[in-house]
Amino acid sequence: MRTHDDRPKPDAEDEEDFGPSRSELRRNALDMLKLAGQLMDLPPSRIPKLKLPEDIVEEIGRTRKITAHIARKRQLAYLAKQMRRHGDEAFVDARAALGEDRDRQRQEAAHMHRLEAAREKLLTGGDEALGELFDTHPHLDRQHVRSIVRQARSEREANKPLHAFREIYRLLKELEASSEDDSAE
Predict the structure, then answer these.
(1) Closest Cα to residue 82, out of 96, 63, 67?
(2) How many CA atoms lie within 13 A of 135 on its CB side?
(3) Which of 15, 41, 111, 133 has its CA 20 to 30 A from that of 47?
């Protein structure tokens, strides 16, 4: 009687390469469907810059024309199938461009959040926050900055349009841009 350990061990030469597993094929298909969706979300002017195969560019144009939800979804799946026929190598540039876009969007969002936090600190921090701002930017018109901070507080309390609130954001954005220019020189 043979036990589990008595089975003959296959040699490296005996093993056949059966190709990618069914799960791997499915993952690749879903990745290509996701890429097709990202390409559809791009503005039409960006598509020619991505160096895509001509038939894929035409198929993207046809898919954009479809407005019915289910039909568009089906056409998107067809687009992904056409893209899989070309292989991953044809879409390296597109994936890189989309990755750069995501990174840039994250950086812009983080930058905006930093500015909003600085504005909120000015509005709630009182004289201490203003003092820190004036220490880092001594060239600022102190009277003007105090005035818009005071005005933004009153606008917020009275539920009025937030003109001064937005002006503080613009001021902080300009200050950050000028400090980046100074550090680059």
Answers:
(1) 63
(2) 6
(3) 111
Structure tokens at 68: 């019915």
Residue position matching structure tokens 């960006």: 46
**Per-residue DSSP letter, 136:** H
Residue type at 169 in one-letter notation:
Y
Are the CB atoms for 148 and 102 separated by under 8 Å? no
Alpha carbon distance 185, 181 (integer Å)? 7
Burial group, residue 69, by CB count within 10 angstroms (0-12, 13-18, 19+): exposed
For 34-62, the pLDDT digits (tens) are 988 888 888 888 888 888 889 988 999 99
The tokens describing 75, both together, are 């056409």
Alpha-carbon span 185 to 21, nearest angstrom: 55
Nearest Cα to Cα of residue 168 among 136, 133, 135, 131: 133
